[in-house]
Amino acid sequence: MTIHILNPNSSTHVTAGIDRAVDAMRALCPVPIACHSLAEGPPEIESQAHVDGVVAPLLAQARGLEDGASAFVVACFSDPGLAALREQSKRPVLGIAESAVLTAMTMGQRFGIVSILSRSIPRHMRYLGAMGVMDRLAADLPLELGVAELASRDRTWARLMAVGQDLIGRGAEVLILGCAGMADYRADLAAELGRPVIDPCQAACAMAIGRLALSRAT
Predict the structure, then answer these.
(1) Gap between the Cα atoms of 15 and 180, Å rounded
(2) Hey, where are the domains in the chain?
(3) 87: burial class by Cβ within 10 Å (0-12, 13-18, 19+)?
(4) Which fold does the domain 98-200 belong to in CATH?
(5) Which long-range contacts (CB under 8 A, 24 or more apart) does 56-65 make?
(6) Is it the case that residue 49 has pLDDT exceeding 70?
(7) pLDDT of residue 80
(8) How far apart are CA 10 and CA 34, in angstroms?
(9) Pairing state of beta strands 174-177 and 111-115?
(10) The domains spanning 2-95+202-216 and 98-200 adopt the same CATH topology
């Protein structure tokens, strides 16, 4: 049995970053953790059309992994196909955005989101509104960098610091990285800003491990 982390884009670079982000959790997990790219997905998910377009192939990928799965994690901050995958699968299904927000609310009263692009924010607002947590949101601010650009450390780091400081100035006690492609920056950003910084893939993986623990409790 395996926790399957499904990256709905086709970027092996992003998937490798997710794998590094959750690696330390493997020692605490009773089953293997495997990270997958979606060959049929776009190189980066940056629009509602991208989000909608990956749902069918994502469901097909998960269907093929179902028999050996302990849990699934949808590793895109728009949580594409989350409800449909929960309907399809008999296993626990975690979305990284939902998991990150729920985790953040256990660590501070107000959270801020670091988004990749301005056009990502309306999707996040719809989702946060549906979750009923808008009163806990300090702000959602963009880096204005695409997923592929996140690999440029110097440029990304400068923007992360600027946006992170802006979010803190707006009252954020906890910061959420609003893309699976930011995983490599979490620890350094938390140390520099002096605030908890949540990588959403780590948050969802932790919840998946927790669900396994609950299922084994007597």
Answers:
(1) 8
(2) 2-95+202-216, 98-200
(3) exposed
(4) Rossmann fold (3.40.50)
(5) 58/6, 58/8, 58/85, 59/84, 59/85, 59/88, 61/6, 61/36, 62/4, 62/6, 62/88, 62/89, 63/88, 65/2, 65/4, 65/36
(6) yes
(7) 96
(8) 16
(9) parallel
(10) yes
Residues 117-144 pLDDT 10s: 999 999 999 999 999 999 999 999 999 9
Residues 6+ apart with CB under 8 A from 166: 139, 141
Which alpha helices (H) appear in 25-106, and where do they start and end? 48-53, 55-65, 82-88, 96-104
The secondary structure of residue 44, as a DSSP letter, is S
Asked if 88 and 117 touch (Cβ cutoff 8 Å), the reply is no
Strands 2-6 and 69-74: parallel
Which overall architecture, per CATH, does domain 2-95+202-216 show? 3-Layer(aba) Sandwich (3.40)
Mean of the pLDDT values across residues 105-113? 98
**% residues pLDDT > 70 (the chain):** 100
Element (H, E) at 192: helix 186-193
